[in-house]
From TrEMBL:
Elongation factor EFG domain boundaries: 552-642
InterPro entries: EFG_II, EFG_III/V, EFG_IV, EFG_V, EFG_V-like, P-loop_NTPase, Ribosomal_Su5_D2-typ_SF, Ribsml_uS5_D2-typ_fold_subgr
SUPFAM superfamilies: EF-G C-terminal domain-like, P-loop containing nucleoside triphosphate hydrolases, Ribosomal protein S5 domain 2-like
Function of the protein: Catalyzes the GTP-dependent ribosomal translocation step during translation elongation. During this step, the ribosome changes from the pre-translocational (PRE) to the post-translocational (POST) state as the newly formed A-site-bound peptidyl-tRNA and P-site-bound deacylated tRNA move to the P and E sites, respectively. Catalyzes the coordinated movement of the two tRNA molecules, the mRNA and conformational changes in the ribosome.
Protein name (record): Elongation factor G
Organism, as annotated: Rhizobium redzepovicii
Amino acid sequence: MRCFTVLGPSQTGKSTVVEKLGSLEGTPRKSSSPYGLNLSEFTFGNEAWCALDAPGPNEALAHAQHALLASDACILCVSSAPEEAVLAAPYLRIIEASGTPCILFVNRMDEPRGRLRDVIAALQDYASHTLLLRQIPIREADRIVGSCDLISERAWRYREGQTSALIAIPESTAEREHEARTELLEHLSEFDDWLLEELIEDREPPSDALYAISSRVLRENRVIPVLIGAASHGNGMTRLMKALRHEAPPVGILRQRLAHAGTVDEGKLLAVSFHAYHRQNVGKTVLVRALGEGLRQGASLGGSSLGAVQNLANGRSNSAVLPAPGEVFATVKSDHLRVPSLLTPGAVIAPPEWTEPPTPMLERILVPGSERDENKLSETLAKLSETDRGLKVLQEEGTGAQLVRAQGPVHLRELCRTLAEVFHISVTDRTPSPIYRETITKPSEVHYRHRKQTGGAGQFADVKLSIHPNERGQGFTFGETVKGGAVPRNYFPAVEAGAREAMEKGPLGFEVIDVGVTLSDGQHHAVDSSEHAFRTASKMGVRQALAEGSTVLMQPVFRSEIHIPSVYSGSLVQIVSALNGQVLGFDRDETAKGWDIFRALVPGGALEELARALRSATQGIGYFSKTFDHFEELYGKEADAIVRAKEKPGTAH
């Protein structure tokens, strides 16, 4: 079986392309996962094929990446409008990072919204590989009625619901065809010395030789050939499928590529897991592509026994099934198989780095609907994060509530739907609050005496403490300058512990940071003094001093790395500035053509708005990662509102 992924932005007709390709010589067998990955098995040219139709939204990019891990080649569907080329940028980025041979298909050419050469030029801004036009459209007035193949120099006229008709190249197209063919041959000659010599000697190379060169350069992932058509009318589908059949590499090449990327012994690499999901009353289902011989139910794979092998289309298990190299199958009761991963008989090996999805930007606290759901939620989210790498699960600082990081609003809705429909856990979500702190702005001194008589031995401790602001990031420090044994040394740790305890909640209601405490003097009693008494005296004394120390609210500031296509870079300075952030600089992304990386400092309270503004400004393409950098003072109405909100449970911490 040969396997390819069809991917691209939403509304480019990917699913229609898969449907038409699968129906060229029969009826395809279809299956789908809750995450939107659809599979079609069909026959073409007496060969078995499996098409992986990756979900289109940018929030589901992780599933497209994982599908590429199991694919011999891919088809990137793009719009026929030049201004929409940027929407394909994330897909070109992951395709090139993966090393997957790609055919670019300009769909919906029956409704062109620009010149094809402008579409290719706009897309080339985001592709390191040369986009090599293999067909040109035949126009009549404003309509595209057919295409001309630049290698065979044959022209075809589209016929609705029928196979295209072979025609002579129209005179109106001949000049453009000659120009485009010359350009094609010049590019191909860069990869073939024989062809270069033929062109230098002004000899016309035969079509068979050109097809062979085209096939080789695609298998070697040297260029991205470009084909055109209109899938909704069936136009260009046979040519596209023939290109896959004759030019896409076999499964053995994929095995070599994965073994090299994962530093695995090729002979031991038996399979690759690329998708998983949970089904009610079934459990975890893992999709696997066989790369070697010997796979069957009960065989050793990933260090344990392979569970039941299921038919993709009907879900039926058959212990006698022996998946051949290249076949895609589902397996249950194989929970030890992580997704995605490279699989040998004895190990589950981490996938290549390029499969890491974009950093999730949307943070939400999930609130279960009942106490019973609360007990199940943590375990269930852990399961879901295993099958959806675009999801990160943590705990909220201070409350321990379940905090999830999702790729965006659609991703979050799908997560809540899965929790409800598959695991019967009802949740609502709320926005987490930034982690605020407080500190003091001026030093103070306090003399505190703790005395308590309860019958028998009492409690007595007397401390004189100096409290002062520390430098930013220095944290809490403790020292002592006691002379003459006024406070015995064995009580110093208790005094420090009491001071630390006082820092847990300051006058504004937040943890206190960057404060130094010095024990300068005090008194003790031979009978009534104790560690507990000095700890209490220190805690109460420090609390009193903090209240007198002009406390100020501190907000977290994060160092953000923002990844966006260069065409949107001009709007980013304004976005960051509007959020009271600071742009530190930007560079071209050396790993992805046409992308920039911005570095900025952004207040923690503005990260939610940054994600929203970034989605809006970049049509959902841009994303950012964050790391905590420092705390800084926050004054005025905003600070007052945060302090007031702290008095209401569950709002700020």
